[in-house]
Give the backbone structure.
Amino acid sequence: MLMLRSLFVTLALAGVAASTIIQGKLKFGTSLHFEVDYSLDVDAGNITFMLTSDGHYDWYAFGLHNKSYGGMPDAEVFICNPQPSNLAGVFCQVGHTTGHTTPTIAKKQYIQLMSAGRSKDWANATFTRSISKSKSADLSYSIRNKTIMVISACGYWSAGKPMPYGSPMRHTTNGFAIVNFFEPDLEQLRAT
């Protein structure tokens, strides 16, 4: 972290605009079949999440908390169901949980869908949201400079049409990761 701060100070003294993009990767374990890369743009006040999976399951989700430990209850949940029929439409949605139940989808979506893809061997989805919590959501958390637990799950979709229709069936597998989005991962520090 000291090396990164030194770089910002050196660039500022030289009159060069310092980049305030912090990147990292959340790995949830080998049984989960997916991971999440993120890119936090501190100046713009947003964070971009890029989900990548081996395509084994229909839906992939992760949930944020505002504390260092938390399970499924009271999580802000981002669920993606990238399928060939919805790639130009709604392939990710945000909602929240109140317990060990299917997430309640937010009436007003506050994520910006960017891209998605799907084949039999992979699935991906990218979206952006503000680092500030949504004022219109029943439950939303700000992305802050603190260590939090991120939960994750994946599973199969209900019979019928994919998102935004239907709903996720109970998760087949789940996991978690611990992260501070404001601390760059080691690979980013080595690159500076």
Observations:
- Residues 1-16, 188-192 have pLDDT under 50 and may be disordered.
- The chain has one domain: 21-191.
